[in-house]
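Data deposition worksheet. Section B asks for the primary sequence of the deposited chain exactly as it was used as input, without tags or linkers unless they were present during the calculation. Section C holds the resulting structure in token form. Section D is free text for depositor observations; keep each observation to a single sentence. Incomplete worksheets are returned to the depositor.
Section A, Depositor: J.P.
Section B:
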Amino acid sequence: MNRRVWYELVAAGTLAISLVGVILAAAGAAFQRTLGVAASSLCAIAFLVPGLYFLGYSRRLRARDLALAHTAAFVRTREAIEIQDLADELKVPRADAERILRIAVQEGYLTGTFESGNRFVSERGPVRTTPEER
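Section C:
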């Protein structure tokens, strides 16, 4: 199981606990238990904030995985590619394009070798297209 799935599970758990706090606060309000409402509301807020953070982080990881898959798909369309061509496609500086390409290779989205510092030669063969294919 990859990091994104773990963060989604943790986010779902903390948001569920927060929802339970909201339900308990509503029940406390219905029975006019001021201390219960205050405690439940505090717990709901205390779990809501990290739950939203974990959910946002899992979304960023999903976007990162999609960007790496897009990079790999673009590079695989050619036998060899100049790093500057990739930078132009991604609309990022050359150094960032090289870093993204190295991460895509490191994480298994793409296989190949770097030649002369500014050229990448991709190998044909089975590669993963999503993180779930590990």
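Section D:
The beta strands are 80-82, 112-115, 119-122.
Helices lie at 3-30, 34-76, 83-90, 94-106.
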